[in-house]
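Researcher: We're teaching a course module on how sequence relates to structure. For the next exercise, students receive a sequence and then see the predicted structure as tokens, so they can try to spot secondary structure elements on their own. Here is the exercise chain.
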Amino acid sequence: MTEPTGISYRIEKDSMGEGQIPDTVYYGIQTLRAVENFPISGLKPLPTYVDACVLIKKATAIANGELGCIPEDISQAIVRAADEVLNGQWRDQFVVDVYQAGAGTSHHMNVNEVLANRALELLGDKKGNYQRVNPNDHVNYGQSTNDVIPTAIRIGGLLALERSLYPALSNAIAALENKGQEFHNVIRSGRTHLQDAVPVRLGETFRAWAQILSEHMIRIETAAADLTLLGLGGSAAGTGLNTHPQYRFRVAEILSELIDQPLRPAPHLMAAMQSMAPFVNVSGALRNLAQDCVKISHDLRLLDSGPKTGFKEIQLPPVQPGSSIMPGKYNPVMAEMTSMVCFQVMGYDAAIALAAQAGQLELNVMMPLIAYDLIHSIEILGNTLAALTDRCIKGITANQTRCLAFAEGSLALVTALNPHIGYLNAAAVAKESLETGKSLRDIVLEKQLMTPEALAEVLNLEEMSRLPNHEST
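Model: And here is the predicted structure for the students to work with:
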């Protein structure tokens, strides 16, 4: 290799031989081999996934130092290096493509090498002097890719939920509830099969969406409880080979403190390392949320359609010009974006399901795909709901006049007449109204099917649209 002017290299060795590593980088020879082997997508590990892996390395260094498994000065140096990464340093050193060696060994060694080389510097030594701090013997003491990576997916999922999805989902629910209160007295025509239906309140439309999202929050939280059971300590195959007897308990305690979650060792480490069921469960809950978010985003687009030839019962806040050729056009872009993200989440869920069933014997080698797709799903859903809430839901206004006109003109109002004039008479009234353009009220009175007073009471839109039991005041 010809060395460019001004760049120095160090020689590193692994079980396959030697390699030249630029002295400016903190990763080592195993990372370099992975970069050369997997020029696939250009996608690098998600920051939250890096956090998860580094938190594990910090916790294991503390535990192994306390238990006398690695020297205390090396333990402290690894912890300091991990803290630097967690505080935002050296992020450009995690360079292995998402699509890589099965189980995630390449990314795992990338983390081990970066922390080992930075620990060496903190100890006053040079990068690459693995006789003093070794990526495998010290940073990775008592660990295997096979128990670290499934634990990292768990930690990464929990971090992403707490940082991104839960706050965004809570804010979306609150914003929808606020709109429900604001639009409580706005009556609109319900629609089923995209045809006229009985009147409903616009406020209850928004409250219904809030309730739907609230129920999804519960489902996701329930599914995420599985992520708190850790296979860490199982080592290569779940037997705990090369680990201290107290290691798995202590490292779970430390990780619990670091991320403020009730983590504990799984009852059967081998099972926790083999089965991807917890990730499938969480992904399924995310897919379920995504499906209803698509429905809500489509409803918003329909209710805002127009402005002259659609429903236009609500106005979504315009956030950018909508056309490169039609002046003055504004599109429901936040709702459109929401649907696209949700479709991606559904696709990720399918990929996770396929990857989860592709494990053999003591290991599932498809974990890098699961790690990326699951954490990315959580984060893009969270980011999407945050953007939709702030740049769309909070700014929605109601076109009360148009809503009421549609509600009063709906043929479905005839439904309320059924108990008073019978289904067949009501159907005849509706048919005549559609054919002649006369109002339902006029036809009923012309045919003397009801008195004016009784008809006014039955066709009271305020009462017809009132929900039972939980009506707001």
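Model: If you want an answer key for the exercise: Strands lie at 9-14, 17-22, 187-192, 195-201, 229-230, 264-265, 314-315, 397-398. Residues 145-182 form the longest helix (38 residues).
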